Amino acid sequence: MTVSETLPMGGYAGDVPTVEITAEIAATVCTVDAAPGSRVLPGDLLMVLESMKMQIPIRADRAATVVDVAIEVGDTVRNGDVLCRLTAENASLADDAGGDASVSSTPEARLAALFDPGSMRLLDADDGSGVRTAEGAVEGIRALAYASDRAVQGGALGMDGCMRITRLTDRAVSENVPVLGVWHSGGARLAEGVSSLDGMGQMFASITRASGRVPQISVILGPAAGGAAYGPALTDVVVMARGAKIFVTGPGVVASVTGESVDMETLGGADTHLNRSGVAHIVGEDDADAVARARAVTVLLSGQRRSSWTRSVMDPGSLLPDQADVAYDVHPVVSAILDENADDAPAWHELQAGWAPNIVTGLGRLEGRPVGVLANNPIRRGGCLDSESAEKASRFVRLCDSFGIPLLVLVDVPGYLPGVDQEWNGVVRRGAKLLHAFSDASVARITVILRKAYGGAYIAMNSHSLGASAVFAWPGAEIAVMGATAAVRILKRRDLAGLAGDELAAKETELAEAHLRESGGIDPVIEAGWVDAIIEPAATRDAVVEAFRGASHHRNGIRNIPL
């Protein structure tokens, strides 16, 4: 079995024997370190690409054997071009069968797993509606929950089951408590006809009424098809266990209507919705992990503060390459700023990690208080904003704004990704969503510019002009309409006319350095008030915490529409 995977920028994904590593951006091949037949270990360099004046290393993230290499040094690759093929060691598709014996498949057991031990109280009788509801505590926070019953008509929902979810969701709003849903359902009950459709509609309306009022977390532990796919999609966070499926129509209907042949996993499995559609915010390795992740996100969105915390001793600046034109993974930088966990639990929870990975979104804590993090990731597409990442970011900003979660924005962005496909995919329309989300936000939001912020992407990444509470920059950071080299190619095109090769490169470098000196660097930006202060990377956490303390902050109360 061969899987085509979008450029991993530091690894590859998919528990399958053979994986195609493909480019996700137009680039030039600088070096090729992988050789056919060679064994690579996690972290080993496969090759280096260059795009938009940024060097992008491609590394393995697990042990594998290189099957073949499709490119050579100097080649130009386009989005989708195959770079190399790997065979993973000890890969097994059986590992993705899903399910976990530690979480029983009965709705009562699944509800109990969501709550603190001994805190659950069932709210209804097992009457054939196919839905059970309960109340309990999640890390001491009172919450309500519902679960579909796979043993009753495959979890199909009729009027009674839908109304049970509707009443519980309305109750959660009236009592101001989070509501969690466990989904394992084939959709509407066909035998009930339009009655079940009306029930579905009323359930959708209640979920929408609760949007932005109380956290709604969906946990998918089996199939969620038809109307049971749209219920979770309307909630704030969707957590899927491996083996779970979400789709509107199954493979049989797809084949009969379109002639396309596809299996259930490819059509609506966890990896599909984490990496391609963006429907899944989090994927748990099994049922127990999915439930644990749902509990953690519920606590964070509820705003519960921890009385004790541990800070990282890592200087986030030490995690950036010495050369400004070398890409890096922003995840360790985020971890170095946020609180650490004393136990083995993740310090922060990334949302939609595989979809539009050039922007990172996640929930963590600063001095015990929940905080949302939005960060450009230079290791993926150079950190450019594009149509999908702008949409992903705007949804996350609105999520945090809905529940009063302050935002930390880490910026290292060369601009918007150019291309015909970007224009056709609605980068203007979808990019405007991010401008709207930040401009409308009322929560405290602090921006830290790590290396650069160019053009319209500077504005979109929570600039002062959109209402940022504070904007800091690390030493050497650049803010400009475009990079110095790109600028001199326009401003000094007559001086560059007729030059080529090394002579052209040397002249561009000379003019770019002069342009930086003449423009005054970051000092005029500070004088104008567009950046509040230059801070040392090691002082980032303290500066951000202090800025949050003094910032105006209140919960917006907007609906969290699934953008």
UniProtKB/TrEMBL annotation:
Keywords: Transferase. Residues 130-313 form the CoA carboxyltransferase N-terminal domain. Transmembrane segments: none annotated. Residues 317-550 form the CoA carboxyltransferase C-terminal domain. Residues 16-87 form the Lipoyl-binding domain. One of its GO terms (molecular function) is transferase activity. It comes from the Bacteria. Belongs to the AccD/PCCB family. This is Carboxyl transferase domain-containing protein. The lineage of its organism: Bacteria, Bacillati, Actinomycetota, Actinomycetes, Mycobacteriales.
